[in-house]
């Protein structure tokens, strides 16, 4: 079981942990494994790449030491320096008095610029074995502007070794020309496809060696400035040749003598124009694979490697695949899967779509597309993969990897037939991109649409669940992945951030980058970060920074303190990405400071520390960054996470995400209390430690909304975090009801929150009656909303749409969702019958209003398009929400009281769906006078002002409970409270007896009766009668006492997290 620890609970190593304040001494509390030497006078402790030499006596200042103690320390400096010095350059010595224990910090000599990722040596001969060719190729590729490569054989294993470095070359605008051969069939088709999948300035050729053998092995590098380099020798492109084989290769660097490089370049150019050379295309690779005879080494003597193992789903992926097959069997055409970072979301998509002829993968970052191509290539080695982004567009590929920014443009989207793809994958995205993704989804008609996300947070990330038909197919989050042994456990340290964030401009859901960089790139904060790293971190660290300048600053600062550090980002001062990761993996670097570059696609399992040096606006990004270190490895027992907590509400996002909390500050406050009381059970092997000051910061950020203002508080917080307001559907997903705002409907609420633009407000005012009707119309079925959705998708709201198109668009919606399909009562592919149903029901009814008109072969609005530029988006938001509520309510149906007709239940009903229910939504608010009609009753003040209302006609008992009664109590004090999120303890009035009618109804002795619980915190809200929340039809769980009777009720749905603090719910 994991645990939470306040900072005072941190345990020490083998020494007694002395110190003041909240922190144990970094010297006395050092782990036993970090103690280099310890005697009666001094202690020598390893700190990162350096050493701390300290007196055994715990004092804070040098002047507090005796003369003898000072002399002892001074005499030990020389021998300790000798442990760190290199090439006769002495280690650096610094007196440190910033903590509780004075010590001398000794750091290794500063590395020469560029030497961290440089050549192993500069001798001409590279002899293989321990002097592997790969280590020499990396820095040359990193330095080159162009690379020409001629090798006789390409093996998949060798391409995988060098591929990340070639990708870096192309990503920074470099050029690659490759010439390989098909001699003896040794070159592997899979290797050719991996190279061909690269994007950028790439020219690939093959020497068809049917008549003449082809054996050159040469690398030619052209540097961005002057000169270049040449490597010629015995190595083909195989893993053994690059990393471990005894291979001789001769290196020549241009400035000494340019003639060899010039001769090699000329020979390469002459090869390219030979008649045997042809362009390497997907068609050529397919033909080569068909005619290739896999060589046998005993016959040809050619190097042959065992084929790579085909990827197979691990246990979580297998479960998700089973769930996806089941959801398609039920008739769903779309679904969402939640898999934690590190559990293989992209591979899951590749496995599930393996039988689809054509696949579209859509994401918002190029790095995600690149990693997706790697996964799909592994699962589908023969398929043609293509990009549709930036300068490269291959719309005819079997699997198209498209950036949403490019594909969503109308000029590109209309290039594709709506039925072009059998399977579409949508990767998680930010709230602001939702409308763009919606445009893509509305255009295509795939056999299945798969949404992928790492976070189960329904109120963030652009409502991906809504785009997937509200169909959550499978979920395995971070905690589950750790508990199942698929991800490494973490030790999380929340530490206080000294930055004053209130002084940094906040715009559109993010800090101003320049001002933020100015605030965080300081010596004091960097010193604090390295102290935290030395105290809590491991040996291989990724630090996530605010900006390029911040990353460069941190790398320089860390190097000055003796750490082997580089910065990786998209700027000119960046270290090469692939080489930096390889050096970190090999232990040649201590830390890599990154800016977004490593949010996705880092495969270094041995990373043991993640240093969060930046505020994170999105839970998706925070989980991605955390996930960089969650790969399991024999080299680590756990991942250390050092996370800064600052005085801005955006830092609550980290806390909320880590603890899997829902919307609202009440859940945050309750979680902090439970953390303090050590009541939260974390995954096995995990620990969460917050510095006491960090806990105080979190507490200060939490707001306490008044009863009834939870929605407004959530709304403001969402707007602050995202830079834009939530949609009605996002509010619904967060556990609130947009239809019950206490304002003039949802759009009235948005208007009162001052979030309607002038154009939107004018449209809302001009078409308020129409929009109110969309928001409140009764929905016995989904017909009307389907018609409106079809018109909006067809750009006919306002406007005109042909009935044939309208029917087809409704059919498309029904094909994706079996609930909607069942609603229509006809097969959506039976066009004549579907048209008849639509004509008879929604179209006829809508045409009877002032807003729509049914003509011969058309259906249209009666208002002009030019007058309503904002109408379609506002209507679309309401339609999406109404369909969402309808689908949610179809999943939870409660029995209607006996004797109540559907018409009676629908009268004055909540604008949710009218299934066989009272039309009530659990945990939504209802004024007292609006409760009676839901049970077919007439409200009157006399009977409905009581705490118990008995409706004999429908055999229902209504409990109206005010929890804080104040002076209301009559006949004794009533103790009403929650014993748990699903158990309510209620004290009946003293006049209620067990053997009376009310007592028999309560216990269930009177057959056929139902008991419905409504409650509120207090009698008044803003000086007026407070509404009640519906807790549902409750089940009798037991009672005790008499006059008064104390009854325990089981409620059907747990109290939402955002309401638990308000109602004092015990876990």
UniProtKB/TrEMBL annotation:
<dbReference type="InterPro" id="IPR027417">
    <property type="entry name" value="P-loop_NTPase"/>
</dbReference>
<dbReference type="InterPro" id="IPR021835">
    <property type="entry name" value="DUF3427"/>
</dbReference>
<dbReference type="GO" id="GO:0005829">
    <property type="term" value="C:cytosol"/>
</dbReference>
<dbReference type="Pfam" id="PF04851">
    <property type="entry name" value="ResIII"/>
</dbReference>
<dbReference type="GO" id="GO:0016787">
    <property type="term" value="F:hydrolase activity"/>
</dbReference>
<feature type="domain" description="Helicase ATP-binding">
    <location>
        <begin position="326"/>
        <end position="474"/>
    </location>
</feature>
<dbReference type="InterPro" id="IPR014001">
    <property type="entry name" value="Helicase_ATP-bd"/>
</dbReference>
<dbReference type="GO" id="GO:0003677">
    <property type="term" value="F:DNA binding"/>
</dbReference>
<feature type="domain" description="Helicase C-terminal">
    <location>
        <begin position="525"/>
        <end position="676"/>
    </location>
</feature>
<protein>
    <submittedName>
        <fullName>DUF3427 domain-containing protein</fullName>
    </submittedName>
</protein>
<dbReference type="Pfam" id="PF00271">
    <property type="entry name" value="Helicase_C"/>
</dbReference>
<dbReference type="Pfam" id="PF11907">
    <property type="entry name" value="DUF3427"/>
</dbReference>
<dbReference type="InterPro" id="IPR050742">
    <property type="entry name" value="Helicase_Restrict-Modif_Enz"/>
</dbReference>
<dbReference type="InterPro" id="IPR006935">
    <property type="entry name" value="Helicase/UvrB_N"/>
</dbReference>
<dbReference type="InterPro" id="IPR001650">
    <property type="entry name" value="Helicase_C-like"/>
</dbReference>
<dbReference type="GO" id="GO:0005524">
    <property type="term" value="F:ATP binding"/>
</dbReference>
